[in-house]
DNA sequence: ATAAAACTTAAAGTTCACTTTAAGTCAAGG
DNA sequence: CCTTGACTTAAAGTGAACTTTAAGTTTTAT
């Protein structure tokens, strides 16, 4: 059995956060030994899922629904399914945004403009600066133009 | 030229947030007509990028660095490049978590267990319940087990 | 010309997800 | 047995990202 400090060390989640999760219902009330929490190592898997969901943009109350938002003892309740479906679509949208953002970063990293001043005339929807027309794709993204400094 | 209300409508970002962004430097100080903000439609592209970066998990001050965190007039400063490199790696990590999370949701949505009680004995690292052994992959993910209700 | 709708600011308030603090209790090692 | 370090709680504090409020000004439509 692990103390809260052990779990904190092994999961990378501070003890204060673990107590907070317990209070919010994200973690089950831990067994106690003389008032102190004792965890089975299983808890680490649950914490992993909580962290994963957080990275994916779930709020605490959403993770709660995800984990225990059903009362029936039949498989995934309608409520759960609805939430999961909705969330799945949100995740897909978020992935698209993530990829777009990576492309913006990559464009910036590959940029070969010699000065910002070269880069502030044309705004195109894909975010590149296409003034001269020669190697437009490798110019600064216009978002970074001097106009806004 | 667009009023702040127009921009709010067209971008989906509340006027109060737009004012906040201006105060924080995310948006350039807008031109004024009798004290009221007037925007060129170009601003919508910038707002799109801000939203994109937010979806991707950038904080406001990070977006600030992204947009104007360089002083030189040579292409992407070292500072910018460092930040972009770091962020790119974070984005990749986040994508992996997103995919994992989708898989957890999908497993839940595909689950065919007849009751939660069927699903609370085995914990495996991939998060599936594999008691009987027949169609293990389609059981409730163990995260959702009764143990924690 | 005037009334309604939309805008302005500064400052205070809100929500989320924790963290910190204070005062005290427990447990593990020597 | 005793000290030290880890733990306990409740409550207050924090930082991020806005939103709301209040009091006033400007624009727009009739």
Topology:
The structure is a homodimer of 149-residue chains.
Chain A lengths: L3 H8 L3 H10 L6 E3 L2 E3 L4 H13 L4 H9 L9 H33 L39
Antiparallel strand pairs in A: 1-2
Chain B binds a DNA duplex (30 and 30 nucleotides) through helix 2.
Q: Summarize the main sheet of chain A.
A: 2 strands, antiparallel
Which series of helices and strands of chain A comes N to C?
Answer: HHEEHHH
* Helical content class of chain A: 40-55%
Count, helices of chain A: 5
Q: Tell me which protein chains meet in the greatest interface and how many residues each side has.
A: A-B, 57 and 57 residues
Please give the number of β-strands of chain A: 2
Q: Major sheet of chain A: order of its strands?
A: 1-2
Per CATH, the architecture of the largest domain in chain A is Orthogonal Bundle
* Overall spatial form of chain A: flat
For the CA atoms, what is the radius of gyration of chain A?
Answer: 24 Å
Low-confidence stretches of chain A: 115-127, 129-139, 142-149
Oligomer: homodimer
Number of domains of chain A: 2
Question: What is the CATH topology assignment of the largest domain in chain A?
Answer: Multidrug-efflux Transporter Regulator, Chain: A, Domain 2
Strand percentage of chain A? under 5%
Structural class of chain A: mainly alpha
Q: Tell me, what is the CATH class of the largest domain in chain A?
A: Mainly Alpha
Terminal Cα separation of chain A, in Å?
57 Å
Q: How much is the average pLDDT of chain A?
A: 77
